[in-house]
Design a protein that fits this description.
- This protein is largely without helices or strands and about 350 residues long.
- About 5% of the residues lie in helices and about 0% in strands.
- The termini are far apart.
């Protein structure tokens, strides 16, 4: 990291670069000990394909619409650089400093950004499909409507990031930090978020079909009206999460912690909630037809007007639960604990209505 007063661009370095990439790369090879200084210069729309710019000072440089295809930018300093609509296809940006850089609309397909610093950078509408962002620092980054399909973001830090309407379909987000991130209306179809930190993250109206959340921390996360069909939440922490009106049809919530969760009007048809913890959860008007709730803990849960017809509730703890007006027609209640449960106008498995 440079210290002291900012240095202006080295005129010699700029002249060498303007002689063309071939001459520049030859000079870099012959003078590998020199870290070029191109601070604040204007390279908008420049052709820098395959250029060797590793360890180069490119702070605040104008690089709008520049072509960096296959360029080497390892450990380059691009803080506050303008890379608006730049072409960085397959570029190597390993460990590069892109803090507060403008990458709006940039093409970063298959780029290597492993370990890069992207804090507060703006990548709205950028294309990062199949990019490598493993271990990248992306705190407070803006990726609104960006395409990160098939991208690798394992162990990346996306805390407080704005990912509104972004596309993470089939992306690898294992063990990533997404604490309080905004993923409203995002596409996370078949994304891998296992063991990720998603506390207080927002997934309202997001597409999370077949996403993998196993062992992730989703405490107090918001999933209102989210599509979670076929998603996996094995051993996931959903304590006090808001899943109101979410579609969890055929979701796997085996061993999940849903204590205090809000599932009002949620679709849990054929969902697997075996041994899950739903103490004090709010399942008012939830659709639990044919759901597996055997050995689950639903003590003190609110199941008013819930549809539990044909559900498997064998050995389930419903102690103190509110089942008023609920439908338990043809449900399996073998070994179920109903001590203190409210059963006003509840339809029992044999079709009889409790008074």
């Amino acid at each position: 990291m440079r210290t002291g007063l900012l240095q202006m661009a080295n005129d010699e370095h700029l002249i060498l670069l303007r002689q063309g990439v071939e001459s520049w790369n030859r000079w870099r090879e012959q003078h590998s000990e020199i870290a070029p200084n191109l601070f604040q210069i204007n390279l908008n729309q420049a052709n820098l394909r395959e250029a060797t710019l590793s360890n180069t000072d490119l702070r605040e440089v104008g690089l709008s619409r520049a072509d960096f295809c296959m360029a080497n930018l390892r450990a380059a300093d691009l803080r506050q650089a303008d890379l608006h609509e730049a072409i960085l296809y397959t570029a190597d940006l390993t460990d590069a400093n892109l803090r507060e850089a403008n990458l709006i609309g940039a093409d970063l397909r298959e780029a290597n950004l492993g370990g890069a610093d992207l804090r507060n950078a703006n990548l709205s509408t950028a294309t990062l499909s199949m990019a490598n962002l493993r271990n990248a620092n992306m705190r407070e980054v803006t990726l609104r409507e960006a395409n990160l399909s098939y991208a690798t973001l394992s162990h990346a830090d996306l805390g407080l990031a704005d990912l509104y309407k972004s596309n993470f379909s089939r992306a690898d987000l294992r063990e990533a930090n997404l604490y309080t991130a905004n993923l409203a209306q995002a596409n996370l179809y078949m994304a891998n978020l296992s063991q990720a930190d998603l506390r207080e993250a927002t997934f309202s109206q997001a597409d999370l079909r077949e996403a993998d959340f196993r062992e992730a921390d989703l405490s107090m996360a918001v999933f209102c009206i989210a599509n979670l069909i076929g998603s996996t939440f094995y051993k996931t922490n959903l304590n006090k999460a808001n899943l109101s009106m979410a579609n969890l049809c055929m979701a796997n919530l085996n061993h999940a912690n849903l204590s205090g969760a809000i599932l009002m009007g949620a679709n849990l048809i054929s969902a697997n909630l075996y041994t899950s913890v739903l103490t004090e959860a709010n399942l008012t008007e939830a659709d639990l037809r044919e759901a597996t709730l055997s050995e689950a803990d639903l003590s003190n849960a609110n199941l008013r007007r819930a549809d539990l017809s044909m559900a498997n509730l064998s050995n389930t703890n419903l102690k103190g639960a509110d089942l008023s007006y609920a439908n338990l027609r043809r449900a399996n209640l073998w070994g179920t604990t109903l001590d203190g449960a409210k059963l006003k106008d509840t339809i029992m498995p044999d079709g009889k209505v409790c008074s």
